[in-house]
Write the structure tokens for this entry.
Amino acid sequence: EKNKQREVVIKMVRLLGRYVEVTSNADMAIFQTSGFQAAAPKTPTPPLTERIRKVEHGPNSGQITVWLKAVAGASSYEIRSCVANATPLVWTSAPASSVKAPILLTGLTPATTYLLQARALIKNTYTDWSDSITFICT
């Protein structure tokens, strides 16, 4: 019974919010007198680089999950990582057949900052590596 009442109240508040939005007719001064707070505009998050869309911590310690951005005509992709500030930089590469599923990089050292780059294979030729991004592995 409580959940049903809660759903009714939530629906009524949403309808009231919509009514205030329409009645204020895009006048923010009028809208603010209602007691409602304006929501921030929803803008898509831009990709980190021209090839890497998003990077997050992996499901386990020592793992990083990477989402790549699709490149027109690409048949596969490659991502590489190395410890930042290492001398010399020793890169480890991982293949990716598509961008539909994220790539899980494993065997990394927790609490270490890594450089990540990606490239695409188009007609048997690799593109240049993307700009490096840094990410701290947990």
In short: The chain has two helices and eight strands. The mean pLDDT is 88.
